[in-house]
Specification:
CATH superfamily of the largest domain: Response regulator
Largest sheet: 5 strands, parallel
Structural class: alpha/beta
Number of strands: 15
Number of helices: 8
């Protein structure tokens, strides 16, 4: 396990100490350091990170404001690091996994890292990935063995994981390194790419109509064509989704494929 880690702290000495302590753990790879809240928000929105050590009092945005701007569902595992223990209760209210006070002590950091690794490696967090891996492997087996597709997907969501019934998913939207599942009035964030999901779901039921969207064909009410290259799909809910030329072909054929746009 390699944990891609970001350190966010406006104090150079604090970053240096944390970097020094983390260097003793071969499973931790520090991929970026940020000096303020604005840099932290930009970094978390632009790259995939497994773990962030987040200072609370920073110029630009506080640690809490960073989480608010990035979005709790988009945040990696978060460990707050601060000189003020009075923030502990609020830290856990925003689903921080752990809370370290400055100066960070070696044993306390080691315990926090163990907690982080247990959370990331937990069965709940990895169930979805394991499901998808088994589907990808089946693609390479060949032969006449019929493929099976998931009936439910486990979606990690902070301290609570929930099951989503696949047949109830109306459409799936690409969101950077995540996929947003639309189920009625609810949405769920899944840390999988739309490309992975298009390969894992039943192509007779879920069709990729655009590079950023997959639809449940049972939810399609109308198809609106605009010229020869694009159009729109209207779902039973009234939602309109852009459709590319390749997506139109996929929809007609009832198969998924690579969509250029």
């Amino acid at each position: 396990m390699t944990l891609k880690t970001l350190i966010a702290d406006d104090e150079p000495l604090a970053r240096e100490r944390l970097r020094f302590l983390l260097a003793s753990d071969p499973e931790v790879e520090i991929v970026e350091e940020c000096r303020n809240g604005r840099e932290t928000v930009a970094a978390l929105k632009s790259r995939s990170v497994d773990l962030v050590f987040l200072d609370i009092q920073m110029p630009g945005n506080t640690g809490f404001e960073v989480i608010e701007q990035v979005g709790p569902v988009h945040m990696p595992v978060t460990v707050f690091v601060t000189a003020y223990s009075s923030y502990a209760v609020r830290a856990f209210e925003v689903h921080a996994l752990d809370y370290l006070t400055k100066p960070v002590e070696t044993e306390r950091l080691r315990a926090a890292l163990l907690h982080v690794k247990e959370r990331i490696a937990s069965k709940a967090a990895l169930t979805t990935q394991a499901q998808l891996n088994s589907f990808f492997e089946s693609l390479n087996k060949g032969g006449d063995e019929p493929r099976t597709y998931p009936r439910r997907i486990l979606v990690p969501n902070g301290t609570k994981d929930c099951f989503v019934t696949v047949s109830e998913i109306e459409w799936i939207e690409a969101a950077d390194y995540y996929a947003r599942l639309h189920v009625g009035s609810k949405t769920f964030m899944l840390r999988e790419t739309i490309k992975q999901l298009s390969s894992a779901l039943d192509p007779k039921r879920f069709v990729r109509i655009h590079r950023s969207a997959i639809v449940n064909v049972d939810q399609v009410r109308e198809i609106l064509r605009e010229g020869r290259t694009e159009g729109w799909v209207v779902l039973t809910s009234g939602q309109r989704l852009k459709m590319s030329k390749t997506g139109w072909q996929n929809l007609l054929a009832g198969t998924t494929g690579s969509v250029a746009g």
